[in-house]
Amino acid sequence: xxxxxxxxxxxESKWHFDILILLAVIGSSATKKHMPAxxxxxxxxxxxxxxxxETLLDTSxxxxxxxxxxxxxxxxxxxxxxxxxxxxxNLLHKIExxxxxxxxxxxxxxxxxxxxxxxxxxxxxxxxxxxxxVTILSIFMSVGLLVFAGVIHDGVAxxxxxxxxxxxxxxxxxxxxSPELPELxxxxxxxxxxxxxxxxxxxxxxxxxxxxxxxxxxxLYTGMDSCKYNLPDKARQAFLAMSTLLLMTSVIMFSxxxxxxxxxxxxxxxxxxxxxxxxxxxxxxxxxxxMSRYHIDTPKGTLASTYTKVLWLAILETGSIEWVxxxxxxxxTAAWDKWLQEACENALREIKDWPxxxxxxxxxxxxxxxxxxxNGVLPQDQMS
Length: 384
Prior knowledge:
Layout: H1 21-25, H2 28-32, H3 35-40, E1 68-75, E2 81-85, H4 87-93, E3 102-110, E4 124-125, H5 130-151, H6 155-174, E5 177-180, E6 198-202, E7 207-211, H7 214-222, E8 226-229, H8 233-255, H9 259-282, E9 289-290, E10 294-297, E11 302-303, H10 307-318, H11 322-326, H12 334-348, H13 356-375
Parallel strand pairs: 3-7
Antiparallel strand pairs: 1-2, 1-6, 3-10, 3-11, 4-9, 5-8, 6-7
Helix pairs in contact: 5-6, 5-9, 6-8, 10-12, 12-13
């Protein structure tokens, strides 16, 4: 058999189209979870096979990282109110793991590499992350397939593997980016950054208090974490077009390679799909990104029995109730206003054993009796 088929109707060597390519295009859900990290890793620029490479062929650029929804982020001192949690902040807190009525408190500062406090390290992909291990394995598998195609003199497979690997490389280069964190204006040397604590409330009623300075809070919570692409838009479009053409070429070549190569390529994609599924199921994005830029002090969380108790814990930690009113975290009723005022007074006096739940019930009863005496009928309960 020669390197390339020469006829369309010869039984010995002919062009034909099989369904091997399906193995190459399935698995998009497995790669989607870690797609931001895949396109940010420098290892991703190497030519290699990747399950569902068409997921990289996105004509629109993502200029902001995906954020966690259904949360309230409130500045204790600044008055800022947001309804989403930034991507890297969510990597630190794992908001989806916060239980209902759970309270946590974090202290976050920069993790300086030396005592001079010049500049903390940048956010990046962990060098020894499982993602990079899988990427390196896929590179070696691609090289092995190329060598095997050359050994058996299968030129079609040689071109197919090469074009598919180059297609992935071109698409990765078009989407290659690095995190761009918001920055504060430069202050005078020696100026101390003010505290800018924030409170995060989850949809399930969990509270997280974060103590940090203004710069850290701007980077992680109140600013916008955006993507800084390494190629201009015109170059990106050119690499996307090149990747698309290479991908279409590889589809034809894969379908017309020898049976031995089809088995080898099919086995390679089978293994790669298992690896990327394992990556998606077993490794969270927080295990891929190097967050050593920040030093995080995380005490053990407290699980309260009611919303009132966990709200009291947050007020006790912050010593303020302005953020509660600003973000509409408590009902706007006279009874709740009185309870909040008492909670603030006891928090400032650091009375940790103040019976928050009991006082809420007593205040409710007082206001209900007061309204009953005024109206002669029992009104609807104002509080839950």
